[in-house]
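Colleagues,

For the teaching module next term, I've prepared a clean inverse folding example: a structure given as tokens, and then the sequence designed for it. I'd like students to try predicting residues themselves before seeing the answer, so please don't circulate the second half yet.
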């Protein structure tokens, strides 16, 4: 344990992770008690492709005091109700992973068990997505926030955002600087450690500046300037389960309609994302270079755009996994420097915000208590580990063997933790995630059922209700969802009336 008050907080690296961290520290810790400095270099690029999010981002926005309409305008954002998966189970098949729940919990168990009995015993429709408001709204390209006055009587609409990552970082920078954060431009050439304790004391910049600090947050991206290059944290490599190690990204012009969801289309050696923003569409091909060359992947991405390309494809290289330790001495890694899980379920920004939340929760008044450090590291490992299993399931549970990539994925070994979930789901349609896990029963059901894993049975409590009562419940839920969505406006029209972004300036 090193004693002494923590006053000077230094964030290394900008981008989404750096400015999310700086904005939160400046807002929550307060400029009177702490100084927050962010060091970044314009000469070092940022990844900047993580444009899709999940609903927990709204909690972060609330903590740092973000006005939602302003946020949507400033980042050219759209609203996101879930993810459409095309060609994952088999070619020509699609399903939707919604943010909201299916139906309502009945008699203390999930709605899906009642629906499963209704479908199996009484010929009910196989399309469970008709019982989910977010799925129905997405299919009809509709969106609306749940009015505060109606939140007790109408099903709550769960949503996230799709935004321009560059504009997001710039927006957070303005927010952080308003709350007292100081930005320093410069490249770090040396990290200075205390000769006895090994704690970081200062950073030397290329231009001769010296940045002193009591606590350092590494947001330097895949490089891990502090956590890896300085502290040699080590890395858990998960590529044997998640073999994709490249992503080609390129934007194209918008096309109508601007849909309120992200699309993930399975391709021959990976998958392609489509993220609609107000001013453009973000596209990318996530792939494994053992099954397709980089040049061929970028060419195929260019050929599969919905609109005219706005830039040449940009290639990103990565290894899926997580640092063995994210907090070492007086340094915490957040964002890509902490670990990387491919963007299939839009968890990258969320995991960064979870790390920020846990850093604030474990932040010491003075000194560095090993119990706090160990607890932070354990909890972040738990977060990454459970997301990892959920993403692996998308590749493992498939009928596809039509390409070498998909044949490998379908037949690969998987972690025991995931195997247990798949076995339980096949038996009775549930995985029983812990309360701390990010993805709950609704998400697992949507993905596993959508990928073609059909449960053999359901929870016995669903057998208690009579046939007449069961059919009435199904009808009432279906009608309630239909009426809820019928009253929602078009997604594009909603943005135009409440939070339309200003068009970018014309080039001179």
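(Answer key — instructors only)
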């Amino acid at each position: 344990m090193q004693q002494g008050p923590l006053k000077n907080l230094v964030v290394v690296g900008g981008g989404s992770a750096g400015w999310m961290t700086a904005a939160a520290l400046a807002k929550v810790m307060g400029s009177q008690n702490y100084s927050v400095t962010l060091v970044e270099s314009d000469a070092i690029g940022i990844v900047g492709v993580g444009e899709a999010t999940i609903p927990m981002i709204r909690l972060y926005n609330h903590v740092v005091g973000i006005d939602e309409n302003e946020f949507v305008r400033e980042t050219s954002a759209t609203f996101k109700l879930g993810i459409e998966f095309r060609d994952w189970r088999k070619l020509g098949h699609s399903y939707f992973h919604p943010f909201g729940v299916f139906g309502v919990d009945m008699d203390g168990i999930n709605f899906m068990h009642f629906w499963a009995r209704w479908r199996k015993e009484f010929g009910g429709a196989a399309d469970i997505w008709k019982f989910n408001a977010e799925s129905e709204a997405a299919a009809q390209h509709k969106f609306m926030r749940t009015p505060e006055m109606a939140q007790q009587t109408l099903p709550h609409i769960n949503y996230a955002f799709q935004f321009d990552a560059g504009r997001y970082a710039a927006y957070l920078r303005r927010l952080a600087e308003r709350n007292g954060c100081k930005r320093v431009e410069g490249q770090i050439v040396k990290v200075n450690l205390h000769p006895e304790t090994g704690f970081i004391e200062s950073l030397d910049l290329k231009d001769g500046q010296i940045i002193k600090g009591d606590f350092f947050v590494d947001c330097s991206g895949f490089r891990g300037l502090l956590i890896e290059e300085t502290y040699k944290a080590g890395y858990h490599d998960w590529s044997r389960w998640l073999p994709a190690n490249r992503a080609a990204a390129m934007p194209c012009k918008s096309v109508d309609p601007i849909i309120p969801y992200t699309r993930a289309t399975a391709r021959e050696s990976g998958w392609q994302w489509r993220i609609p923003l107000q001013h453009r569409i973000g596209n990318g091909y996530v792939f494994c270079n053992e099954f397709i060359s980089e040049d061929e992947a970028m060419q195929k991405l260019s050929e599969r755009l919905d609109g005219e390309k706005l830039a040449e494809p940009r290639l990103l290289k990565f290894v899926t996994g997580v640092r063995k330790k994210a907090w070492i001495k007086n340094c915490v890694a957040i964002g890509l420097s902490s670990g990387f899980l491919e963007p299939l379920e839009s968890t990258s920004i969320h995991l960064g915000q979870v790390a920020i939340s846990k850093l604030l929760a474990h932040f010491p008044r003075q000194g560095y208590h090993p119990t706090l450090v160990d607890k932070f590291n354990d909890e972040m490992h738990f977060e990454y580990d459970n997301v990892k299993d959920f993403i692996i399931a998308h590749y493992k549970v498939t009928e596809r063997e039509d390409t070498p990539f998909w044949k490998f994925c379908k037949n690969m070994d998987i972690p025991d933790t995931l195997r247990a979930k798949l076995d339980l789901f096949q038996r009775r349609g549930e995985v029983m995630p812990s309360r701390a896990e990010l993805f709950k029963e609704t998400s697992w059901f949507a993905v596993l059922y959508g990928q073609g894993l059909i449960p053999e049975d359901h929870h016995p409590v669903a057998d208690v209700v009579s046939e007449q009562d069961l059919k009435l419940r199904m009808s009432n839920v279906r009608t309630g969802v239909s009426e809820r969505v019928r009253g929602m406006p078009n997604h594009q029209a909603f943005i135009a009336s409440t939070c339309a972004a200003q068009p970018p300036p014309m080039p001179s």
